[in-house]
């Protein structure tokens, strides 16, 4: 502990607009995460500004539409597509995106996530399908995994809406997610490549997974968690512990296989041969970074292709703030990863 304290870095220097957004998000999390494990959703909604789908192209030339996958459980996805496509253009890859929020907060219609997916659609040259999965604690593990896997199945059977106006190639499908969404993307990729869907006539094939600061954990307190407690914004140990308790099955601790996938406290997952190449993004001011590096190392030990991308000065969730230079650099790295994975596909 003393070593961690002595190595404690200075708080990050952020533009004042980003600093205000981060402070507001942190305060909303703290006030809405009740001690009894429930969420005050009305209170969080005061900060979580929602935006509807926009069928007309925006300034980026991107339009969006909501698609109902299962009305009974309110499972839907927001599809972002370029507004203009040339008839002879090659089919675009598809990015199925799982948002962050500690499994319990935010949604596919949250304004910052909607804006981020619009940027990804435009700059990656892909159709982005943002999944609005069920949230904890009302819907615990494995509800979020089930929902995102069912969206993949839906794409394979129903396809994308015909009016998106651009051709797509479902054999070049990427699962992506930030924070808790990165955790979901890993587990859904594991489930998908272990199932009969791989050998069936389902056209969806995973070309890669893109995990932006994925949310893994365990009972252990890592060096980064101790060193960055009270320094890195957005994530701290109290908020993180609350999120795991809300998401994991009743009575489970953080060494549950949903959280702990790196083998220190329980067996490593058995990954199938078809498990796709992975890109793992790590921020130097993210308390979760040790778990993320361990995850990449686990993939390497199992002979899986993995690209570890480090942003030394990045806070957790930096990709949601386009004013941060690293947010632009990230998009270029993701695009390069997708192009490499597609060329090897």
Structural class: alpha/beta
End-to-end separation in angstroms reads 46 Å
Q: Widest sheet: strand order?
A: 1-2-4-3-5-6-7-8
Poorly predicted regions are: none
Q: N-to-C SSE series? A: HHHEEEHEHEHEHHEHEH
Tally of separate helices: 10
Task: Using the coordinates above, name the CATH class.
Answer: Alpha Beta
Overview of the structural elements:
The protein is built from 10 helices and 8 strands. β1 (62-70) and β2 form a beta hairpin. The chain has one domain (38-342): Rossmann fold, CATH 3.40.50. The protein has helices spanning 2-6, 16-32, 41-45, 111-124, 143-158, 180-194, 223-227, 237-247, 289-301, 325-343, and strands at residues 62-70, 75-82, 92-98, 127-132, 168-178, 206-212, 278-283, 306-311. 35% of the residues lie in helices and 17% in strands. An 8-stranded mixed beta sheet has the order 1-2-4-3-5-6-7-8, with helices on both faces.
Secondary structure layout:
Layout: H1 2-6, H2 16-32, H3 41-45, E1 62-70, E2 75-82, E3 92-98, H4 111-124, E4 127-132, H5 143-158, E5 168-178, H6 180-194, E6 206-212, H7 223-227, H8 237-247, E7 278-283, H9 289-301, E8 306-311, H10 325-343
Helix pairs in contact: 5-6
